[in-house]
Write a structure and sequence with these properties.
Elements: H1 2-33, H2 35-75, H3 79-90, H4 97-109, H5 113-126, H6 133-146, H7 150-163, H8 173-184, H9 187-200, H10 205-220
Helix pairs in contact: 1-2, 2-3, 3-4, 4-5, 5-6, 6-7, 7-8, 8-9, 9-10
């Protein structure tokens, strides 16, 4: 049985080999009959390979030049010069999300809010999945807050919490919301947001800022913290006075009791004292 299987397998291999030889001969014969047809196909393949290699080299060169400009911009001493060079780098079509974000951040440092907002909006539109997008939205909210557009600021801060709840930026948004609420005059909502920040990110710098803000509001508006107002403890009823003990029976005064005289010799009778005679009256003088 094993020999039959082995022989069958050998026949399959030989048959496949003969088929392959036949295909090669057929292909070579076709090439000889139509050399121009296969020559054009080969030329197209070679051209495609050369184009791909050239494009990759061009792209790599463009990326090197772009990142060289990016590094030089970061090495500039003045933020204004950084913003100028980053703006030139971001103007190219191959600008990366890091370059666009750094352009917005640098423009924010020098107070060019319009340029910063444009860069952050471009980042969220062209690279919605980039890791810097939550920070860019936070910066957009900050710019709105600085321009006293409080509703726009709250919209941006809440968007971060809703879209990127696991991001690091989401963990510090209660502080931003509290500041906006305080600026709006809604102190009760501000206190709630400050307290949320201390619970959500304990031990952090934003939690410390929130605790300082709560202490400030506690001093100026103690009515916002009713649970912390000391309350006078209720008066406890006085304990009933113990009943007076019954008066003790009066004892006779022993000091007024008659004294008993016990003679030294009971047989001897006490001697009667004789009264001394009264003196005779003196004789009257003649």
């Amino acid at each position: 049985m094993a020999k039959k299987q082995k022989g069958s397998r050998v026949k399959e291999i030989l048959s496949t080999s003969r088929d392959a030889e036949g295909e090669i001969k057929s292909f070579w014969q076709s090439v000889q009959e139509k050399p121009w047809h296969y020559g054009i196909g080969a030329a197209v393949i070679v051209a495609a390979i050369l184009f791909t290699v050239g494009y990759q080299q061009h792209t790599a060169k463009a990326k090197r030049e772009l990142y060289t400009t990016y590094v030089k911009a970061l090495e500039a001493d003045e933020p204004a010069e950084q913003a100028k060079q980053l703006e030139a780098a971001a103007a190219t079509g191959a600008a990366s999300p890091e370059i666009i974000y750094m352009l917005g951040e640098t423009a924010l440092k020098v107070g060019e809010y319009d340029k910063a907002k444009a860069a952050f909006e471009r980042l969220r539109q062209e690279f919605p999945d980039a890791r810097h997008v939550p920070d860019a939205v936070e910066a957009i909210g900050f710019i709105a807050q600085e321009n006293e557009d409080y509703e726009g600021a709250l919209k941006a801060y809440n968007e971060i919490i809703e879209k990127w709840p696991q991001s690091f930026a989401a963990r510090r948004q209660p502080l931003n919301i509290a500041r906006v609420r305080e600026a709006q005059g809604d102190l009760a909502a501000a206190v709630q947001a400050y307290q949320d920040q201390t619970l959500q990110f304990p031990g952090s710098s934003v939690a410390q800022e929130s605790e300082a803000a709560l202490a400030r509001l506690r001093d100026s508006h103690p009515d916002l913290f009713p649970e912390e107002t000391p309350q006078t403890p209720p008066e406890t009823p006085a304990a009933p006075a113990p009943e007076a003990a019954p008066a003790a029976e009066e004892l006779p005064d022993v000091t007024s009791a008659p004294k008993l005289t016990i003679p030294a010799d009971p047989a001897a009778a006490p001697a009667e004292q004789t009264a001394a005679p009264e003196p005779a009256p003196a004789a009257s003088q003649q």
